[in-house]
Each structure stands twice: as C-alpha cells, then as structure tokens.
Design a protein that fits this description.
three-stranded antiparallel sheet, 15 helices, about 45% helix
Length: about 425
C-alpha cells in the first residue's frame, strides 16, 4: 500500500487550520426562512473543517475522517464563499498530485478519497474506486476556483498543469478510457457514472460525457489564459466536436428522448437512471432548446414520482437555475434548506446555491469582472449578500425582485459588472 504522508506533510503544512474559521459573508432578505437556513449552512459547514491536520480541509465524507473527490469537487465553490481557499487548494492539489503519479496500473485516475493525514492506506479498496466523471469533475472544480479567486496558481502550478494535460491526453488518461475510439470517455473496469449503485453495464454514461464536455471547454479557457491560443482553439474544437457527437448520437428518435448511456456493444437506455439522467444537463452539452426542456420535465417528473437521495438533491437547484427554471430551482433549494441534513454536501451547497443559483452571481476574477442574474421567486421579494469574495474584492449585491439590482465594491480593484 502506498503512503503519501511524508511528502504531503511538507506540501500542506503551511496551510493547516489551527482555529475554527470565520466568515464575513452574510445574507439578509425579506425571507426569514432564507436567512435562518443560510446561517445554519454557515455554521454546519464550519463544523466539518478539520483543525490541525496535515492536509487542510473540510470533511467531505460521512465518516468525517476522509474526503472524497466527488464531494470536494461539488462543495468547493461554497467553501470558497466561506473563505476556505487554503482548504480547497490542499484537497484538490492532493487529488491532482496523486493522479499524476498513478502511471503504471491506474492510468492517471485520481483516488476516490484520502485521509486528512494524507494517506490513502485506510479502506484501500474504496480509495481505488473509479467513477468516470471524477477525473473531469476535479478539473472543472479547480478551474472554477481560478474564476472565483483569480489565483494564477490554479492554472500555472506544475501539478495542476500536468493534471489538466494528462486528463485529455491520449497517451495518458484517455489512452485507456476510449476503447471504441469515438472521442467519448468510457470505463470498462468499474462505473461510467456517478450513480454508485447503478445496475447498468454502461461504458459511456450521460453524466460522464457532460463532465468531459465541461473539462474540454475549461481546458480551452485555461490555455487561452496562459496565452496558448493555438492549443485553446484545438480544445475548443474538441469540445464542439463532442457536443456535435452528443447531439447526433445521444438522442433516440424512437423514444424522443436523450440517451443516458451505452454498453460495450452499443445498447442504450433512455429510462430514468438517477445521476446518469439528472446530471446530463449539468452543462450546456444538450440543445438548449425543445429537447432539453422536455428532458428537464422528464427529470422533474421522475424525481416527484420516485424520490431521490439527499446527495442527489444537492445538485438539482443549480441544474434548474442553469436552465432558467427559477421556480423549480427554488423548490429544490428550499427543500435542501429545510432538510436539516447532516450530509456534508448539504451545508456547502446551501451557501453556493443561494449566492450563485438564487442570486445568479458568477465570477470572473482573473478579468476583474462579475455577472449577476437574479432568480428570485415570489416568496423572496428581496435579498442582499454582503462580503461576497471575488478575487481580492469584497462585494455587496442586492436584488429587489428580478428587475432591480445594486452592487457595491467595498474593497479591491475596479471591477466590470455585467447584469
């Protein structure tokens, strides 16, 4: 069993947390429910922060002594909003660092989880777990941290730079993850999907292809930010080609429905398949038109009819807000807030879905820019967020309905605001 602890102590000791963190982030609103649940989310999120461990971080697994790649990737934006940038760096760096050294048998896969002592030795089999979206998810999550913080290390650090390159390299990760040579990442060893109890024998899944698409788009933008315009154009075209493939191959004219996965001999399914279904519109790989609208209806109907677990619910508000379905987005955010669940993702996603979903605040810190698009429901006439951290700036943003927004730059450089 490989132990990374000795080197990781050297890598992360400088960012260890020795006292409970605090935040200036605050939400006020006409809705006392939103304010109360947002404050609950802050307190609950901070309860998971690890104090004095070799790897700075927050618990992202129910056992609270390990952190999981899927969960960290999903929780990191909420963590940034709470000031946990060192923790995000520490954990995401470790996934990249470890993946870059898995060159013999595991072919550049990030491990599924680590202990806060930096070791992968505990529950070794689970550390080896493979869900295909993970590799792309860690990458897109790291890029989003670049957009929030403006910290160039997220794109220039050697370990992250290598991880991003390896992810799309057909002599590295993709050499073993495209057995049918169609450009779509596949998995023949364990799971092609984040649906961890999937009964399907898919080698390609709807959630994996959407994360692959996001990672290709993000890598193009990373290369552009680094001044590699030729490389940026190449990967922008790869993303466009994957989207074209999806539009052409991943739609069943017979069922009038998007396909959620393929097995090794090309058999496909369009039925309800949890993550392989509801995570497909997590990006804009679908047509952004009638097909997508029908698929969102299909997702909503199946969740209402069959229910869904709490981890899955943490994704739903952002998906429906992304596609402009404000009332459905609020329905799922409200349910998440009301759940009171101790599942670690819940608190962090309450924070992120309030700021980025409900309030529609999107960062572009490297370019000293931010965007707002209010998505308030009739239950929330107004809402204000104070001390929103974008780059080195501290912002106050207030929405009154969906037609009036004010923004104040409390500190930092001059910023461009696009509403």
């Amino acid at each position: 069993m490989k132990k990374l602890l000795p080197i990781l102590i050297l890598l992360f000791a400088g960012s260890m947390a020795f006292s409970q963190p605090t935040t200036n982030l605050q939400v006020t609103s006409s809705s006392s429910f939103v304010v109360d649940k947002f404050n609950w989310g802050i307190n609950k999120a901070f309860s998971y922060v690890k104090i004095g461990t070799p790897v700075a971080g927050y618990a992202a697994a129910m056992d609270t002594v390990t952190f999981c790649a899927r969960d960290v990737a999903h929780m990191a934006e909420g963590a940034h909003l709470l000031g946990l940038d060192a923790e995000n760096w520490s954990m995401l760096y470790l996934f990249a660092y470890g993946a870059n050294r898995r060159v013999a048998q595991d072919y550049y896969w990030p491990r599924w989880h680590y202990h806060f002592n930096g070791s992968d030795s505990a529950d070794y089999g689970s550390c080896q777990w493979r869900c295909l979206p993970t590799t792309f998810d860690v990458m897109q999550s790291s890029y989003r941290q670049y957009l929030w913080t403006g910290n160039n290390d997220w794109i220039n650090d050697t370990e992250f730079e290598t991880y991003y390159s390896n992810t799309h390299d057909y002599t590295k990760f993709m050499q073993h993850q495209d057995v049918n040579s169609n450009g779509v990442a596949d998995e023949t060893v364990q799971l092609a999907t984040y649906w961890e109890q999937s009964p399907d024998n898919f080698i390609e899944a709807g959630d994996a292809i959407t994360y692959q698409y996001m990672a290709l788009v993000d890598y193009s933008k990373i290369l552009e930010a680094k001044g590699d315009m030729s490389g940026a154009a190449t990967f922008a075209q790869k993303a466009a080609d994957l989207k074209t493939h999806f539009q052409t191959v991943w739609y069943s004219n017979e069922d009038n429905m998007y396909i959620r996965g393929f097995d090794a001999v090309g058999n496909s399914k369009t039925d309800w398949g949890r993550e392989s279904t509801f995570l497909m519109p997590y990006s804009e790989i679908s047509d952004q038109g009638p097909r997508t609208e029908k698929y969102l209806d299909f997702i909503t109907k199946n969740i209402y009819n069959f229910g869904i677990n709490i981890e899955a619910i943490t994704y739903l508000a952002e998906i429906f807000y992304l596609h402009g379905r404000t009332s459905t987005g609020w329905y799922f955010l409200k349910n998440l807030m009301a759940s009171g669940s101790g599942y670690p993702e819940v608190s962090y996603l309450i924070i992120n879905n309030t700021i980025q979903g409900l309030m529609g605040i999107r960062p572009d810190a490297p370019n000293d820019k931010f965007y707002t698009l209010p998505k308030l429901s009739s239950e929330i006439p107004w809402i204000q967020a104070d001390h929103v951290p974008i780059g080195a700036n501290d912002l106050t943003i207030k929405h009154e309905g969906t037609t009036k927004t004010t923004a104040t730059n409390n500190s930092g450089v001059a910023m461009t605001w696009e509403a």
